[in-house]
Write a structure and sequence with these properties.
mainly alpha; 7 helices; about 45% helix; about 10% strand
């Protein structure tokens, strides 16, 4: 599976920059080589390429080093409102199963880089996160972030 190719709003990058700021970094450091300026992160008309988000993640990981659970800490910032209409649609599901079906159908409306699937397991639903197609150095961060964000 290839890196997602669809455009996305800059909400995830904004959260990553805020996370970096909270850890003593500066926005220009985090946005370096992404082609983005800080003011664009709040512009509802801006669309970003997945590669731009991967660049910001790479900068964040390189600047903060290999901290344990870094991706989980960052992922906790992604609340249901972060996802806009997709998040609202999940809240309207009649059951967990219906919400999960909807979530997976419209996964491109999220910021996930990990392929996600759901399957029944011992009478419950198991949510599976596959390894993302991304540089090896940031894969642990992406897996942790996507899992933490999904759990929120």
């Amino acid at each position: 599976m290839a890196t997602p190719s669809y455009l996305r709003d800059p909400g995830s990058i904004r959260l990553l920059v805020e996370f970096g700021l909270g850890n003593g970094l500066a926005a220009p450091q985090l946005l370096a080589r992404s082609g983005l300026k800080e003011k664009q992160l709040d512009d509802p008309l801006v669309e970003v390429e997945p590669e731009q988000e991967l660049r910001v993640i790479t900068n964040l990981v390189n600047l903060l080093g290999a901290q344990p659970l870094l991706g989980i800490r960052a992922g906790w910032a992604y609340g249901i409102s972060t996802y806009g209409i997709w998040g609202f649609a999940l809240l309207c599901g009649k059951s967990i199963g219906e919400a999960m079906t909807l979530a997976l159908r419209f996964l491109p409306l999220t910021y996930a880089f990990c392929p996600i699937s759901v399957r029944p397991l011992h009478g419950q639903l198991a949510v599976l996160f596959d390894e993302p197609v991304a540089p090896e150095a940031i894969r642990p961060f992406l897996i942790q972030r996507d899992m933490a964000a999904a759990s929120r």
